Amino acid sequence: MARERGGNGGLGLFLALGLIMSTWIAANAVRDVRMSNQIIKVRGYAEKAVKSDVAEWTVTVDAREKTGEEAYASLKSQASQVVSFLRESGVAEDRISLSPARVEENRRLVHSPEQKEQGRPQEPPVELVDYTASQAVTVKTQDVDRIEKIVPQISALYEKGLSLNIGNPRYFYSKINELKSELLTAATRDAKQRATTLAEGSGVGLGALRAARQGEFSILSADRTTLDTEYAADNEDSVQKKVAAVVTVDYAMK
């Protein structure tokens, strides 16, 4: 009889341990399910310094004379001198373009004492004063260094009596597509590192990647540091730039 009771006791202990293990496994399974539904959302950032490879520069020539013919002739003479300056400075001729010339009349209102006294409702007469002509000379080239060099030198044309409106050169980077894969990989790696840091700080582990969303690629000035590339504009005055990429990723916790 004692043996039988001992056998039953062992069986009871075995069943109790099995129940405890089942409860522990079930509890942890529930915990794992709950944790897997918890998401860490982070943004990853990557950038690479680049130098502009395209420059665009516009110089507008103006002329003002008594007649339209005189204004146009003066304009063509000045525009020719600007083009000559650019060619002598090493800019290829096929990189220089001229906009259509514009010639406009300049008029002014004529007020007479009689009109003021009588208060006539009609519009006062106008008289022709002179003519203004204008034309834009634009350079678009990949020789960025040359443009940087000659921009300060063109002011010498003022000494020759030319009427110029000299704009600032605009610089662009055209090879952003060649950097996309590299920057996306780096931004995703940065996002995982940020997610790992957040998970460890919260006392949990980092689970599987749940979602990844690519943000916009942006070209920023070299001194710009931000994750908000969607609201960052390219500084076209800057030769030195950087291409930036942002990704947003979701990781499960465990």
In short:
By secondary structure, the protein is of the alpha+beta class. 36% of the residues lie in helices and 33% in strands.
Walk me through the structure.
The chain has 254 residues and is α+β, with helices and mostly antiparallel strands. It has five helices and ten strands. The strands form two sheets. Strands 2, 3, 4, 5, 6 and 7 form a six-stranded antiparallel β-sheet that branches. Strands 1, 8, 9 and 10 form a four-stranded antiparallel β-sheet that branches. The radius of gyration is 37 Å and the shape is elongated. The model is unreliable at 14-36 (pLDDT under 50).
Which radius of gyration do the C-alpha atoms yield? 37 Å
- Alpha plus pi helix count: 5
Overall body shape = elongated
Structural class: alpha+beta
Mean pLDDT: 82
Summarize the SSE layout with pairings:
Elements: H1 2-36, E1 39-51, E2 54-65, H2 68-88, E3 96-98, E4 102-109, H3 113-118, E5 126-141, H4 144-150, E6 164-166, E7 170-172, H5 180-201, E8 206-214, E9 218-221, E10 240-253
Antiparallel strand pairs: 1-10, 2-5, 2-6, 2-7, 3-5, 4-5, 8-10, 9-10
Essential attributes:
254 residues; alpha+beta; 6-stranded antiparallel β-sheet; 5 helices; 33% strand; elongated
